TrEMBL record:
Keywords: Nucleus, Repeat, WD repeat. This is Ribosome assembly protein. It is found in: Nucleus. Residues 104-171 form the Histone-binding protein RBBP4-like N-terminal domain. PANTHER family: GLUTAMATE-RICH WD REPEAT-CONTAINING PROTEIN 1. One of its GO terms (biological process) is ribosome biogenesis. It comes from the Eukaryota. WD repeats lie at residues 313-355, 407-441. Residues 1-54, 79-99, 175-214 are annotated as: Disordered. PROSITE patterns: WD_REPEATS_1, WD_REPEATS_2, WD_REPEATS_REGION. Its main location: nucleus. GO terms for molecular function: unfolded protein binding. Gene3D superfamilies: YVTN repeat-like/Quinoprotein amine dehydrogenase.
Length: 505
């Protein structure tokens, strides 16, 4: 990201975007919605209507003497040019090192490092988001792109909350290339001047949703099973297949019962929670939910209905902040707790106690991610801003094992962590410092190219060589990879959704 004076920016329309292109584009508050507030789902062009002219026109003050001689005019022009050259160069913005932004400074994205960047404004902040699998194919790299998403709101009044399902299409490639780039002709087909399109369907909710997760088996079963953990302590299971069908079938009417949950989990009483995950190996539907009192319940599907185990898994009264099913064993799962522990469980245990408990952090463990491709790797994000990667084979008999990787780049709590499902060495980490960072664990510390870059830029001398990219988004809470579009991420924050892909991944 770059930091520069707002006076250098072109004036743009005000928006509720996480990418700010001018001082006046700061979003309205998320209070009561007025007539002029932005409608739900409004797209914003993150780069505005910027353009460059072939030449520069320098105008003298209209009040200058019209009879100014040529020598004085040339002197005046030279002074203006020198003043313009004295403007500070854009700098890299790093949340824990850079000075706080001044009243006349804004952050703007560098368009040359994003292959795609789109913003969606929503009526209320959303704490969570997930990607819906689609039938458009895997390994998609062409543009314009289409993405199916679901999220849920944190409205100021409970009755205004809703679950929002959307299809975003005509997402054009936004990478800025040099005029003399040899690849321009090849990329012409990927560039589309048409505006992005958003179709959305909403389901009314009575409470804020803490977390939302979609079953990874949706394409296999034809059911888009989507679970939500609500602030009132209940967990709901919806089938969003009718909403998806409405996006792809003109004139299709969604049945009324498709806007109601197909099952409600009340085993947690009125204790809210954040832990929520679908099994990636049990396609009939196996859902784990965890709450602030440390209880974890397993809900499974039978031939006729859903059944929740009455006896919870339990080890501590500390809050269960996150849950992840194993990607290799269908009875194993992991939890993250406010007591600093990561625990490994087996659903076959009659005692409903953890098989392994290890201290992962001296602070809360907020989030965890189980690697899709290497099922003995687990990542954890902590309240002190640090995050680690663990080899589960080292957990046997050790209460304080050593992580295979540990970073403390972020100085604010980690809010989300996720292994790239298509590349086991890439990890996305979001933090309360308003950034999402991308990391490549395969990069060696003594890489010659990295070392050369660090020598050239003083700003990078103490930055971990594994850090690939820093994406700025205000109050970012959740980040998810798109499994069918390599390198594409969706992140949600206080000012809406970002759909983006960097040249780094």
């Amino acid at each position: 990201m770059s930091k520069r004076s707002a006076s250098d920016d072109l004036a743009g329309e005000g928006s509720n975007s996480a990418i700010k292109t001018s001082k006046d584009s700061l979003p309205k508050s998320n209070g009561a919605q007025g007539e002029n507030d932005i409608d739900m789902g409004e797209f914003e062009d993150p780069y505005g209507d910027d353009f460059e002219s072939d030449g520069e026109i320098i105008e003298l003050d209209d009040n200058e003497d019209e009879d100014m001689d040529e020598e004085a005019a040339n002197k005046k022009i030279e002074e203006l040019e020198n003043a313009e050259e004295a403007q500070p160069e854009p700098t890299i913005y790093l949340p824990h090192k850079s000075k706080p932004l001044g009243p006349d400074e804004v952050l703007e994205a560098d368009p040359s490092v994003y292959e795609m960047l789109h913003n969606v404004n929503l009526p209320w902040p959303c704490l969570t988001v997930d990607v819906l699998p689609d039938k458009l194919g895997n390994e998609r790299r062409t543009y314009p792109a289409s993405v199916y998403l679901t999220t849920a709101t944190q409205a100021s009044r409970n009755k205004d909350n809703e679950l929002i399902t959307m299809k975003l299409s005509s997402l054009a490639k936004t990478l800025v290339k040099d005029d003399d780039d040899e690849d321009n002709d090849e990329d012409e087909d990927d560039n589309d001047d048409s505006d992005p399109i958003m179709d959305s369907e909403s389901i009314p909710l009575k409470n804020t949703t803490n977390r939302i997760r979609v079953s990874p088996h949706s394409l296999e079963t034809g059911e888009y099973l989507t679970a939500t953990m609500s602030e009132n302590g209940e967990a709901y299971i919806y089938d969003l297949s009718s909403q998806v069908q409405a996006f792809d079938t003109p004139g299709y009417m969604i049945p009324k019962n498709a806007k109601k949950p197909i099952h409600t989990i009340r085993a947690h009483g009125n204790v809210e929670g954040y832990g929520l995950d679908w099994s990636p190996l049990i396609n009939t539907g196996a859902l784990l939910t965890g709450d602030l009192s440390g209880r974890i319940h397993l809900t499974s599907r039978t031939t006729s209905n859903w059944v929740t185990d009455k006896t919870p898994f339990f080890a501590s009264q500390s809050s269960i902040e996150d849950i992840q099913w194993s990607t290799g064993e269908n009875t194993v799962f992991a939890t993250a707790g406010c007591d600093g522990y990561v625990r490994i469980w087996d659903t076959r245990s009659k005692k409903h106690k953890p098989a392994i408990s290890v201290v992962a952090s001296k602070s809360d463990v907020n989030v965890i991610s189980w690697c899709d491709k290497i099922n003995h790797l687990l990542a954890s994000g902590h309240d002190d801003g640090s995050w680690s990667v663990w080899d589960l084979r080292n957990f046997n008999g050790q209460s304080t094992p050593t992580p295979v990787a540990n970073y403390d780049f972020h100085k604010s709590p980690v809010t989300s962590i996720s292994f790239n499902p298509l590349d086991e060495s890439i990890i996305a980490v979001s933090s309360e410092d308003n950034t999402v960072t991308l990391w490549d664990l395969a990069v060696e510390a003594d890489d010659e190219e990295i070392a050369a870059q660090r020598k050239e830029l003083q700003e990078l001398h103490d930055i971990p060589p594994q850090l690939l990219f820093v994406h700025w988004q205000k109050d970012v809470k959740d980040v998810r990879w798109h499994k069918q579009i390599p390198g594409c991420l969706v992140s949600t924050g206080g000012e809406g959704l970002n759909i983006w892909k960097t040249i780094s991944v």
